[in-house]
Amino acid sequence: MATENLQKRLDEILCEVEKPARYAGGEFNSVVKDWDNTDLHFTFCFPDLYEIGMSHLGIKILYDILNRRDDIWAERAFMVAQDMEDKLRKKEISLYSLESKMPLKDHDIIGFTLQYELSYSSILSMLSLAEIPVLAKDRDDTYPLVCAGGPCAFNPEPLADFIDFFMIGEGEDVIVKVSDIVLKGKKNGTSKADILKELSELQGVYVPSLVDVTYNEDGTVKSISKTVEKTVIENLSDAIFPTKLVVPFVEAVHDRITLEVMRGCMRGCRFCQAGYIYRPKREKDADKLSEIAKLSFCNTGYEEISLSSLSTSDYLQLKDLKGKLNTFTKENMINLALPSLRIDNFHEEALESLSEVRKSSLTFAPEAGTQRMRDIINKNISEETILNTMQFAYENGWSTVKLYFMIGLPFETDEDVLGICELVKKIESIYYSVPKEKRGKRFGITVSVSTFVPKPHTPFQWAPQDSFETILHKQNLLKENLRSKNIRLNWHDAETSVLEAVFARGDRKLGKVILEAHKLGCKLDGWNEYFSYETWQKAFENAGIDMKFYSERERSLDEVLPWDVTFCGVTKEFFKRELLTAKEALTTPNCQDKCAGCGANRYQCNSVCHNRG
Predict the structure, then answer these.
(1) pLDDT exceeds 70 at position 182
(2) Given this model, what pLDDT does residue 592 score?
(3) Taking burial as the number of CB atoms within 10 A of a residue's CB, which of 7, 201, 334, 525 is the most buried?
(4) Burial of 63 by CB count in 10 Å (0-12 exposed, 13-18 middle, 19+ buried)?
(5) Which residues have CB under 8 Å from 215's CB, separation 6+?
(6) 433-450 per-residue burial string, b: 16 or more CB within 10 A, e: under 16
């Protein structure tokens, strides 16, 4: 009855908001069960708009895993746009899950996905819209447990005041164990405090209220009472993977079948958090992937399949998988997309895979313009390799390319920034060196430049971020020296990069900043139309906290770091060695060529750590 009443009230407002399908539910393949006949209600909350959240593979995997259980109903909820928020508040409608249309406050567990630091304010907004106290200490046993996971959970401290527990690492197994404990506690009338204590005994579960953190007089962390080790799926081929994907009514950012071919990365780029927290590299069997792809197409009708990983061209079974999918994709006019290709192993098989249905732009990430900087970040590619690859691509009919670079990297000079301009100009000139009958038309190069953010659990976690003024200076160098009708330059706003660095390297004291920003109206900070740097500055001022303490301060190698509450499987000693190696502009071989002793071989799985030789 409650659901029916809510649906009537929603019918009155959905026709008055933009993209009402974001909030309607009922999508093809969404899972609907009987509320009263399911024992545990778990809602996955994505702190961004529907079309962003519906592109996230992790939620799709966990949604499928839990819904295979008859006693659990996993649902979805997303942050709403301003027009919908106004309607919900005016009509006094609590934020609800899409499947059952039940208020989130009536669920047992609500879990937030932490993909991006600038989503933190939206977590508080969603809790507020759900009429759930934003501070964990204010939620008694009548409220649902609030948890979070994802890459940003590897530094959970800025959100420690708001989240009851975090799941650190890969969630396929631990989310089932968590659900069983909560389900048992619900049936036995166990208190929330006792449930949290039992959850804290699981590998990969971090309960902030049960961990003591002390501080030195200078504001740095003095001690942490416990460190939580991540969870790892050892056999990726046997892991559950969804084939009945929920098909949204509105176009999602990634509106396609996503095949996860492997996890982890063997490359060791020193700025890349994902490359370390998802170690070791594990591959999914090509036969299993082919089966998943065909079932997913039959269940959804999507016309594109994307192979997903941190470095798809490092997938050893790529040629085999392409052969298994070749006839199927051709017959059904399905495009096979290979993102995350590397310049140094962009081979003919990958090029053929990209070209069999339609040509699109190629995307590569040189990351730096000079060899010195590429060695510092351990990119392990030469300028000759970059230029030869572009020559090969242009000769095979490609005419548009996207190039990703980064500025503000440790030990970078203005000459290194200008090196980006020089490299792009050389790539531009190569196109014109190719005979007209071979090269494609509509030539163009898109250069996207992000600002380095020092991330936890990387060799550069101790490094300072460039000051706001220095970031603007380097961006201006690029604008002044990359002027061509063929080149389009994009860059990230310095304001968002600074804020990202603050929260990436933050501690528990930032909780009062996030709370203050919420009170001032901050939300959906990844969107230009919502983001207000001035409002965030006011929040820091009101909380009495200096942003530069977190973003621009170089950390000493013996400092206790806020994110030492989690262990990603790679040792701090390895990260220290890599930082010192970077200072010398020396490289470290990839894991498949030579083990560098990072510590990830502690996980006894089918990975490159155990397959060498």
Answers:
(1) yes
(2) 87
(3) 525
(4) buried
(5) 221, 222, 507, 509
(6) ebeeeebeeebbbebbbb
Is residue 49 within 8 Å of 79, Cβ to Cβ? yes
DSSP state of 442: S
Q: Which is it for strands 205-206 and 213-215: parallel, antiparallel or unpaired?
A: unpaired
Nearest to 129 by CA among 99, 163, 97: 97
The yes-or-no verdict on residue 354 having pLDDT over 70 is no
Backbone angles phi, psi at 515, to 5 degrees: -65, -45
User: Could you give the CA distance from residue 118 to residue 79 in angstroms, rounded to a whole number?
Assistant: 13
Give the chain's end-to-end CA distance (angstroms, integer).
64
Contacts (Cβ under 8 Å, ≥6 apart) of 613? none
- pLDDT of amino acid 438: 86
Specify whether the backbone of 38 is left (phi greater than 0), alpha (psi in -120 to 50) or beta.
beta
Mind listing the pLDDT tens digit for each residue in 552-590? 999 999 999 999 999 999 999 999 999 999 999 999 999
The string of DSSP codes covering 260-284 is E-EES-SS--TT-HHHHHTPSPEE-
Are 378 and 410 within 8 A, CB to CB? no
**Alpha helix (H) residue ranges in 317-447:** 318-331, 348-355, 371-376, 383-395, 414-433
Question: Are the CB atoms for 239 and 233 separated by under 8 Å?
Answer: yes
Q: Report the amino acid identity of residue 480.
A: E
Reading the block at residue 347, the tokens are 């081979």
For domain 2-229, which architecture applies?
3-Layer(aba) Sandwich (3.40)
Residues of the chain with CATH 3.30.750.210: 233-358+570-613
100 is written with which tokens? 């059952």
Q: Note whether 118 and 154 are within 8 A (CB).
A: no
Architecture in CATH of 233-358+570-613: 2-Layer Sandwich (3.30)
The fraction of the chain above a pLDDT of 90, given in percent, is: 85
Cα 300 vs. chain centroid, distance in angstroms?
Answer: 24
Helix (H) or strand (E) holding 593, with range, is none
Contacts 24+ apart (CB under 8 A), 391-396: 391/430, 391/433, 391/434, 392/346, 392/351, 393/346, 393/351, 393/362, 394/430, 394/431, 394/434, 394/438, 394/439, 394/440, 395/434, 395/438, 395/439, 396/351, 396/355, 396/438
Domain with CATH 3.40.50.280 in the chain: 2-229
Q: According to DSSP H, which parts of 250-347 are helical?
A: 273-277, 286-300, 318-331
Q: Which helix (H) or strand (E) holds 147?
A: strand 145-149
Read off the pLDDT of residues 368-400 as tens digits, 9 standing for 90 and up: 999 999 999 999 999 999 999 999 889 888 889
Instruction: Give me the residues paired with residue 229 across strands.
Output: 567
Residue 610 and residue 274: Cα distance in Å, rounded? 21
Enter the pTM of the model. 0.95
Half-sphere exposure of 427 (CA within 13 A, CB side): 32
Element (H, E) at 381: none
